[in-house]
């Protein structure tokens, strides 16, 4: 039996705290995502930044020429991200959206999830896989970053082994690679993470 983890009210969090102080804040493109895009020779197309939060990854991807949609359950996060993108003259579609009741009606070349999946209760994981699969074009990719089973600090997201990722996603995605990495952000030491490249079957 997996112990249920507690998470904040995301909207209140983004209203009450400076985004630069949040554990996952990283103003640059995620290093693992950048490496994956180079390896797969992906330099254009449509992207969904799922759980975009402060919008840093959506903004970084837009600057690279991708057509980006960023979604988050927090209206406050979306408002802040949209404002930041407009300041930089970027055309990004930021939408307040709950992945389990998603109003999105398009397929993307790839989805980047840097911290959404690993906060969901285990009972919701197969719903997540089904819905995200439906948002990705055939042969498109899900780039998934989540906490690793090697992370030992108290609290925070659920942890995963590579075998669990394969088991959860294997019916609908071809697992290209899973590697141990870290979450670039404001914590010291940086949390241990898994970065998975999953291709839609």
UniProtKB/TrEMBL annotation:
Family annotation (Pfam families): Methyltransf_25
Biological-process GO terms, alphabetical: methylation
Keywords tagged on the record: Methyltransferase, S-adenosyl-L-methionine, Transferase
Record-level Gene Ontology MF annotations: protein-lysine N-methyltransferase activity
Domain called Methyltransferase: residue spans: 47-140
InterPro entries for this protein: Methyltransf_25, SAM-dependent_MTases_sf, TPMT
Gene Ontology CC: one annotated term: cytoplasm
Keyword DNA repair set for record: no
Name listed for the protein in its UniProt record: SAM-dependent methyltransferase
Organism (species): Fischerella thermalis CCMEE 5268
């Amino acid at each position: 039996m997996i112990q249920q983890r507690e998470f904040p009210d995301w909207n209140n969090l983004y209203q009450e705290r400076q985004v630069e102080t949040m554990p996952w804040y990283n103003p640059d493109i995620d290093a693992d995502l950048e490496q994956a895009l180079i390896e797969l020779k992906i330099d254009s197309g449509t992207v969904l930044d799922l759980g975009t939060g402060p919008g840093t990854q959506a903004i970084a991807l837009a600057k690279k020429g991708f057509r980006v949609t960023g979604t988050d359950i927090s209206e406050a996060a979306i408002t802040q991200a949209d404002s930041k993108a407009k300041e930089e003259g970027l055309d990004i579609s930021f939408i307040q959206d709950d992945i389990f009741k998603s109003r999105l009606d398009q397929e993307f070349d790839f989805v980047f999830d840097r911290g959404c999946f690993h906060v969901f209760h285990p009972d919701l994981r197969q719903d997540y896989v089904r819905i995200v699969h439906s948002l990705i074009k055939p042969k498109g990719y899900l780039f998934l970053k989540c906490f690793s089973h090697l992370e030992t600090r108290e609290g925070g997201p659920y942890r995963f082994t590579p075998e669990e990722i394969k088991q959860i996603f294997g019916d609908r995605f071809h697992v290209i690679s899973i590697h141990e990495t870290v979450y670039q952000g404001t914590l010291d030491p940086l949390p241990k993470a898994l970065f998975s490249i999953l291709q839609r079957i």
